[in-house]
Amino acid sequence: MSRILPYLINALLYAGLAYHFWRTRWAHAAHAQAATSSSGALEHYAVLVPLGLHTVLLAQSVFGGHGLYLGVGNAISAILWLTVLIYWLANFVYKLEGLQSLVMPVAAVASLLPVVFPSLKPLPNTEFAVFRFHLLIAMLAYSLFTIASLHVLLMALLERRLHGGTLPQMLERLPPLLGMEILLFRIIWAGFILLTLTLASGVVFSEELFGQAAKFNHKTVFGVLSWIIFAALLAGRHVYGWRGRVAVRWTLAGFLALVLAYVGSRFVLEVILGRA
Q1: DSSP annotation string for 189-233
Q2: Would you state the pLDDT for residue 56?
Q3: Which residues of 83-117 are buried (b: 16+ CB within 10 A; e: fewer)?
Q4: What pLDDT is recorded for position 245?
Q5: What is the pTM of this model?
Q6: How far apart are CA 210 and CA 237, in angstroms?
Q7: Does position 153 have pLDDT exceeding 50, yes or no?
Q8: Closest by alpha carbon to 10, among 114, 81, 80, 111?
Q9: In contact, 54 and 151? CB cutoff 8 Å
Q10: Among 12, 68, 160, 193, which is 20 to 30 Å from 55 by CA?
Q11: What is the Cα–Cα distance from 226 to 249, expressed in whole angstroms?
Q12: What is the reported pLDDT for 168?
């Protein structure tokens, strides 16, 4: 119980912020609180409380012992930790108001996963610098595409409510759809560059360790598939001006393929098949 308690506290802190953001941003205007600039700054820095605890717990779980423990629980938790960190930093530059209520509950669940699905064995080959670089940029790519997927869901909700004629208070304060769309494709471009580097560094690592450019397995197939989907989306955007529902479908399809490339495969191996 003493091991679970810090993770539970961390999840409750994220969940508490999620509820606060929902109540003050998404609830009916009659019950929602007006967010002043001072309260907005306080809310922004309040995210550092669960994020800081998440950092400590994740470091203990991933680096505790000899080697790098990055099973499915730690991997998802690390991706969402990075997602919250990137979101928090990006809030200094971009208006990402609507994402708080989407990011925080996902982070709450992810912060519990290291104790629900503990990593029993260290990850092999972490002594290779190219593999550590590969892991780092892969996690960054996952995090950016997580933000892109949540962002595109927010856009889809906004577009649907616009057609319905009624908007909650939060959606009224969001930037225009065109501005959100521009930001979405900036995020996708950044994620796509990192995904390209992930695949390239994976080839270099495979050459160094196995003497072949890439092993033909589910990770390779889904990783390349996600790259093709996002490449097609960006090309379609440039050539045909793809937007709206087309962008939503392609973004979510690419993210699903990316999830299946590593997280999904590790879940099947570790949780369903019971193999590390």
Answers
A1: HHHHHHHHHHHHHHHHHHHHHHSSS---SHHHHHHHHHHHHHHHH
A2: 96
A3: bbbbbbebbeebebbbbbbbbbbbbbebbbbbbeb
A4: 87
A5: 0.86
A6: 38
A7: yes
A8: 111
A9: no
A10: 193
A11: 13
A12: 57
Q: Go through 167-198 and write b for each residue having 16 or more CB atoms within 10 A of its CB, e for each that does not.
A: ebbbbeebbeeeebbebbbebbebbbebbebb
Other CB atoms within a 10 A radius of the CB of residue 228 amount to: 12
CA-based Rg of the chain, rounded to a whole angstrom? 20
What are the structure tokens assigned to 192, written together? 């796509």
Rounded Cα gap, residues 11 and 54, in angstroms: 9
The C-alpha atoms of residue 4 and residue 173 are separated, in whole angstroms, by 39
Flag the least confident range among 29-38, 45-54, 71-80, 201-210: 29-38
Between 114 and 267, name the one with better pLDDT: 114
Q: What is the dihedral of CA 259, 260, 265, 270, to 10 degrees?
A: 50
- Position of tokens 């494709």? 185
State both tokens at 137. Answer: 């940029």
Would you state the structure tokens that stand for residue 63, as one six-digit string?
A: 């680096």
**Cα–Cα distance measured from residue 68 to residue 57, given in angstroms and rounded to the nearest whole number:** 14
Residues of the chain by 3-state class (helix, strand, coil), percent to 5: 80, 0, 20
- In this structure, what token pair is assigned to residue 268? 């099947």
Q: Alpha-carbon distance 148 to 240, whole Å?
A: 20
Residues 128-144: pLDDT tens digits?
888 888 889 999 999 99
Least confident residue range of 65-74, 165-174, 262-271:
165-174
The domain spans of the chain are 4-272
Higher per-residue pLDDT: 17 or 24: 17
User: How many other C-beta atoms are found inside a 10 Å radius of the C-beta of residue 202?
Assistant: 21
